[in-house]
Amino acid sequence: MNVIWIAPPAAGKGTYSSLLKEKYGFSHISAGDVLREEIAKGSAIGKEIESIVSSGKMVDDTLLKQLIENKLRSIDLSKPFMLDGYPRRLNQAIDYEDILNRLGIEKPIVIFINIDKETGLNRILGRVNCPNCKRNYNLTSGYAKPKVDGICDDCKTPLEHRSDDNKESYENRYNTYFNETTELINKYKDEGSLIEIDGSKSPEENFGIITKILGVNND
Ligand SMILES: [Zn+2]
Fold it and tell me: What single DSSP character describes residue 99?
């Protein structure tokens, strides 16, 4: 089973990803992490990516496709996995179908967590994350609160507010996200494979809905 998230910032994707990983053993493949890993290796491709990213440009689709495919070949594909930050545009979605075909993996389950700008903004003001293991928390939500105030449950690192969590930056990221993904959303909608959930509901309720959709929750 493989899951694609389509989720504007603050829709709750980070929380649901962590929970699926923790409770149901999903692998979590982040496009950003894949790029960072390649840069950290210091390979020729890594150096190329570093120069592209540091000049503020986007890594081209062909290269990204290759890196995502390599990453998928390196994990245990008999376990469910989810992709984060990929595919983000129509061409990438077509590339991803190609990858899945080559690896003999079934079509993705596409979950669109829709959230309006206002609700998203309120939510990010309560958002903190772990600088070490990257787990996300939210001080405004019971489910996503750390067990001990200000400390990561997993690795005990003090939590931090994300420096880009302010109104102007949020609205920019939100608008950019929808500009980039509209074609992708329409593609999956047209195919009848887009599963839309209401991101303004509580994380508890939505996680219940998501695990039912994925068939991992038999409660
Ligand atoms: Zn942590």
Answer: H
Measure 15 CA to ligand 1 centroid, in angstroms.
13
Higher pLDDT, 74 or 10: 74
Ligand 1 centroid from CA 188, angstroms: 34
Task: Convert the pLDDT of each residue in 174-213 to its tens digit.
Answer: 999 999 999 999 999 999 999 999 998 988 899 999 999 9
> How big is the chain by its Cα radius of gyration, in Å?
17
pLDDT tens for each residue of 122-137:
888 888 999 999 998 8
CA pair distance 131, 125, nearest whole angstrom: 17
Residue type for position 87: P
Residues with CB under 5 A from ligand 1 (ion): 130, 132-133, 135, 152, 154-155, 157
Q: Over the stretch 7-21, which tens digit does the pLDDT of each residue have?
A: 998 898 988 999 999
Contact (Cβ atoms closer than 8 angstroms) between residue 81 and residue 75: yes
What DSSP line would sit under 135-197, residue for residue? -EEETT-TTTS-SSTTB-TTT-PBPEE-TT-SHHHHHHHHHHHHHHHHHHHHHHHHHT-EEEE
- Which residue type is seen at 201? K
Asked if residue 87 has a cis previous peptide bond (ω within 30° of 0), the answer is yes
Domains of the chain (ranges, CATH numbers): 2-119+196-214 (3.40.50.300)
Query: 186 CA to middle of ligand 1, Å?
Result: 36
